Amino acid sequence: MAAVSASLSLPSRTPELSVRKMSILNKFHSVASRTHCNFDAIFKPSTLTLFISTQRPHAHIKSPPRNTIRCLFTGIVEEMGQIKQLGTAENGGFDMKIGAKTVLEGVHLGDSIAVNGTCLTVTEFDTQLSDFTVGLSPETLRKTSLIELEPGSLVNLERAVQPTSRMGGHFVQGHVDGTGEIVSMDPEGDSLWIKVKASKELLKYVVPKGFIAVDGTSLTVVDVFDKEDSFNFMLVAYTQQNVVIPLKKVGQKVNLEVDILGKYVERLLSSGFVESIKSS
C-alpha cells in the first residue's frame, strides 16, 4: 500500500459529522428534479458543501470510454485520497471529486475504483491536477457510509485488479452489503482493536479467522460476538498508517462486504444441491 502523497493536505482526523442521511438525500432529489436549471449555490446549514457548476472542468483524457467490465478488488488499499468536492452534476446526478495519485496511473474513463470499498466508475480525471471524479446514485448514498463524507474527508482507494495483478487480500467485489457501526477502539501496544456492530443478516456470514472487507480494507476477523451483534479485528501499526479506519471515531459507520464464498455456500445448501449429490 502506498503512502499518501505529500501534495495532499491531509487533516489528522476525519471531519466531525453534522449531516444526517435524509437531509442530504432530500437536497439531492430537490436539485436533481430541476434538470433544466443552472445553479451556483452552497447549501446551508449543512457542513457538506454541494458545489454546483454550470461548466465542468476540462479533463485530460487519454482514451475514450471502454465497455470492458473490470470490477474485482483485493482489499489491499493502494492509497488514501482526499475528497475535494461533492455536488450535483449537470445531468442532475451527484458527483464526487477525489484527489489522488497512485490510482491515476494508467487510468481510463470507465475504469472501476473502489472508494471505501464501494465500486465506482471514473467519469472524469485530470492527471495534472491529480484528481478524478465518480458519480453517486441515491441508492449508493442510502446503502453505504459515503453519505457521511465531507470535503476534506480521507477515503481508501484501490483500482480494480488486472489478470496480472497479485491477489494480496481476498476477493472483494466492491458491492457493499451494508454498513456497520464502530462501537469500540482500544489500543494494545502499537496495535488497535476495533469492534464493529452489524446487522444479524450480515453477521451470519462473519466467522472467526475469516475475511471481511471494512471500508474496502481486507481484514481478518478475530472474534464474533453473537449476543452483541458485533465482531472485532486488529490493525497493526503499518495498516493504521495507510487506511482510514483508525481516523474514524466510535459511532461512525463503515462499509462492510462479507466474503462472497459464504453466500455461495448458503445458496448451494438452500437449493438442495447437497441432497441431489447424495441421491445421484
From TrEMBL:
<dbReference type="InterPro" id="IPR023366">
    <property type="entry name" value="ATP_synth_asu-like_sf"/>
</dbReference>
<protein>
    <recommendedName>
        <fullName>Riboflavin synthase</fullName>
        <ecNumber>2.5.1.9</ecNumber>
    </recommendedName>
</protein>
<dbReference type="InterPro" id="IPR017938">
    <property type="entry name" value="Riboflavin_synthase-like_b-brl"/>
</dbReference>
<keyword id="KW-0808">Transferase</keyword>
<dbReference type="InterPro" id="IPR026017">
    <property type="entry name" value="Lumazine-bd_dom"/>
</dbReference>
<comment type="pathway">
    <text>Cofactor biosynthesis; riboflavin biosynthesis; riboflavin from 2-hydroxy-3-oxobutyl phosphate and 5-amino-6-(D-ribitylamino)uracil: step 2/2.</text>
</comment>
<dbReference type="GO" id="GO:0004746">
    <property type="term" value="F:riboflavin synthase activity"/>
</dbReference>
<feature type="domain" description="Lumazine-binding">
    <location>
        <begin position="171"/>
        <end position="269"/>
    </location>
</feature>
<dbReference type="GO" id="GO:0009231">
    <property type="term" value="P:riboflavin biosynthetic process"/>
</dbReference>
<feature type="repeat" description="Lumazine-binding">
    <location>
        <begin position="72"/>
        <end position="170"/>
    </location>
</feature>
<comment type="function">
    <text>Catalyzes the dismutation of two molecules of 6,7-dimethyl-8-ribityllumazine, resulting in the formation of riboflavin and 5-amino-6-(D-ribitylamino)uracil.</text>
</comment>
<dbReference type="Pfam" id="PF00677">
    <property type="entry name" value="Lum_binding"/>
</dbReference>
<keyword id="KW-0677">Repeat</keyword>
<keyword id="KW-0686">Riboflavin biosynthesis</keyword>
<feature type="domain" description="Lumazine-binding">
    <location>
        <begin position="72"/>
        <end position="170"/>
    </location>
</feature>
<feature type="repeat" description="Lumazine-binding">
    <location>
        <begin position="171"/>
        <end position="269"/>
    </location>
</feature>
<dbReference type="InterPro" id="IPR001783">
    <property type="entry name" value="Lumazine-bd"/>
</dbReference>
